[in-house]
């Protein structure tokens, strides 16, 4: 099983009513050199300007992005390439990131290659240090820029640190 660290940027709080603007994914291994980046045309006329601003894109920019169906099909193909078995979804905030990726996969391709499960990096860290008030974000090496590939790489670096320095038993 391959772990895939994912990060999404959106223009609102929920899929369907709002749009996933971009997302990044990286295969979690020592190299962190296999990544995917998708920029998706909005699926709804609704958007929250403050939410969209986080991505660094304007509405005009996003209207020129790629068709969501082809982006999700390309992402599914990339996942097959980097993970011969079912990939395992992990993210900084899987409650948010997962709902967009899962919804977009089911809506545009009819299936989610990740299955029905996801993991939360923050919860994993809290369990390892046995303190629900702790945060893993100091373990990132790559700056958190809201470019979803950068953010996924930073989170993957943190997961690798958990394996190395915190003795997390995980097969990568």
TrEMBL record:
One BP term from GO: DNA metabolic process
Molecular function terms, GO-annotated: exonuclease activity; nucleic acid binding
Top-level division of the source organism's lineage: Bacteria
Residues in Exonuclease domain copies: 5-157
The protein, known as: DNA polymerase III epsilon subunit-like protein
Species annotation: Pseudobacter ginsenosidimutans
Lineage: Bacteria, Pseudomonadati, Bacteroidota, Chitinophagia, Chitinophagales
């Amino acid at each position: 099983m391959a772990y895939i660290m994912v990060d999404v940027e959106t223009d609102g709080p929920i899929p369907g009513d709002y749009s996933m603007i971009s997302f990044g994914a990286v295969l979690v291994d020592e190299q962190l050199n296999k990544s995917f980046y998708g920029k998706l045309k909005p699926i709804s006329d609704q958007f929250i300007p403050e939410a969209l601003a986080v991505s660094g894109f304007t509405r005009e920019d996003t209207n020129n992005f790629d068709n969501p169906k082809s982006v999700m099909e390309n992402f599914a193909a990339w996942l097959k390439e980097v993970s011969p078995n079912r990939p395992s979804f992990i993210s900084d905030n899987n409650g948010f990131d997962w709902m967009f990726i899962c919804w977009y996969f089911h809506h545009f391709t009819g299936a989610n290659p990740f299955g029905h499960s996801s993991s939360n990096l923050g919860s994993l860290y809290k369990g390892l240090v046995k303190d629900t008030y702790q945060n893993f974000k100091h373990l990132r090496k790559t700056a958190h820029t809201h470019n979803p590939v950068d953010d996924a790489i930073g989170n993957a670096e943190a997961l690798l640190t958990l394996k190395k320095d915190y003795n997390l038993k995980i097969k990568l």
